[in-house]
Amino acid sequence: MEAVAKLRNVPTSPRKMRLVADLIRGQKVAKALNILRFEPNHNAARLEKLLLSAIANWQNKFEDVRLDEADLFIKEVFVDGGRILKRLRPAPQGRAHRIRKRSNHVTLVVASNYEAEITEEEDNTKNK
Description:
By secondary structure, the chain is of the alpha+beta class.
């Protein structure tokens, strides 16, 4: 039982975004929201909004399961490089240096431990 949320073309380098993404990987949703809320890095606000979107996607997908019973955690979060804007900066003696303005794509997967509990109960009933 999982849901996905994607954030595309974020105008910051993937390396900077990965620093924040590594903080929340594998955490429970409530703990991850607290980490992101108090993290001073500006990318934390974007990831917090993305995490809230993933939770809402999960609620829409599984309406019959209550959120507090689901025990949601962050199964995957990864940051890929996006498009690169190439600009030129004047340099001495008529030359030019290339400036690469990087962007990234973030994918966040939220999963539930509720599914594992259901399969364990089904296995126990089959074994009896």
